[in-house]
Each structure stands twice: as C-alpha cells, then as structure tokens.
Amino acid sequence: MKITFLTVGKTEDAYLKEGIEKYVKRLKHYTKLELVELNELKNTKALTPEQQKAKEAEMILKKITPLDHVVLMDEKGTEYSSTRFAAYINKREISSSATLIFIIGGPYGFDSSVYQRANDKISLSRMTFSHQMVRLFFVEQLYRAYTIMKGEPYHHE
C-alpha cells in the first residue's frame, strides 16, 4: 500500500523539517510514503475564509483519484491511541486500498467538498496545534504504528 501525506503549505521551520525527514527516512523500511506539499494561496487578505477553503479544495481534489482512501486530519475526527491507530493502518493495508491519503488542510480547515470526498477523519488531539507541528506529530505516529504492527520495541505500553 502506498501512503500519501498531503499538506496545504510547506514546512518552514528547520527543526520541524529535520524531525519530519527523520521519520520519513525511518518509514522507508515499512511502506512507500510520498509527501506532497501544495502551495499556499497568495493574496488571501481579499478572500473570506470560505473562499480560501474553496480554492484549497480545488487543489486538494486534483490530487485525489476515485480509488484513493482519503483521511482528513481534522479536530472533529476520531481520536485513536497509538495501538488503535496501528490497527487502523493494518486494516487499511489488508483492505488493499490503492493509496491511503492523509490530508492536512489550510488554516481554516476544509471546504465541504473535501469533507464529502473523505472516507475518514482523524484527530491527533483535542488540543490545537500549528499545521507545521501536526506534520511532525503525524509522521512520528505513522512510524510508531508500523513499529507496533511489526512488534518492534519503539512503543511502550
């Protein structure tokens, strides 16, 4: 199974980039992971949040095929423990989805068209984190999930 991690905007802070690269490198031993960074919108001061979400949705939906299993990283999504998230990933692998796509939207979240296309929504926490930090937290949890599935000693209960 291929996993795509799709984000609106680029990771800017060097320390976050370094952390993301660390876990992406580790994940190569377990799965094929593609990072896709969509360009942030320019000149957004003239746009309402709804208009921004609609424009971001156009970019997001162009990157998705009908066979993809789409998971939105959303504060209203299902919260998983690390072991339950590992079980979720394992189930997706068994179901042989062509591509599992995890998406982090822009600062205002997702347009309704993206919600309609999504298969699942996952929340990393009830707390709010910057979109930059969520990227690092997500790839670490994905790595943790694979080590749990393989019975490796990275995760401790």
From TrEMBL:
List the EC numbers from the record: 2.1.1.177
Classification via InterPro entries: Alpha/beta_knot_MTases, RlmH-like, tRNA_m1G_MTases_N
Which transformation does this protein catalyse, written as a reaction?
A: pseudouridine(1915) in 23S rRNA + S-adenosyl-L-methionine = N(3)-methylpseudouridine(1915) in 23S rRNA + S-adenosyl-L-homocysteine + H(+)
What is the predominant subcellular site recorded for this chain? cytoplasm
Cell compartment(s), UniProt: Cytoplasm
Q: Where does S-adenosyl-L-methionine bind?
A: 105, 124-129
UniProt keyword annotations, A-Z = Cytoplasm, Methyltransferase, rRNA processing, S-adenosyl-L-methionine, Transferase
Q: Which top-level enzyme class is recorded in the Swiss-Prot or TrEMBL entry?
A: transferase
User: What is annotated about its quaternary structure and interactions?
Assistant: Homodimer.
Biological role stated in the UniProt entry: Specifically methylates the pseudouridine at position 1915 (m3Psi1915) in 23S rRNA.
Task: Name the family the entry cites.
Answer: Belongs to the RNA methyltransferase RlmH family.
Name of protein = Ribosomal RNA large subunit methyltransferase H
Its source organism is Mucilaginibacter dorajii
Top-down, what is the taxonomic lineage of the species of origin? Bacteria, Pseudomonadati, Bacteroidota, Sphingobacteriia, Sphingobacteriales
What gene name does this entry carry? rlmH
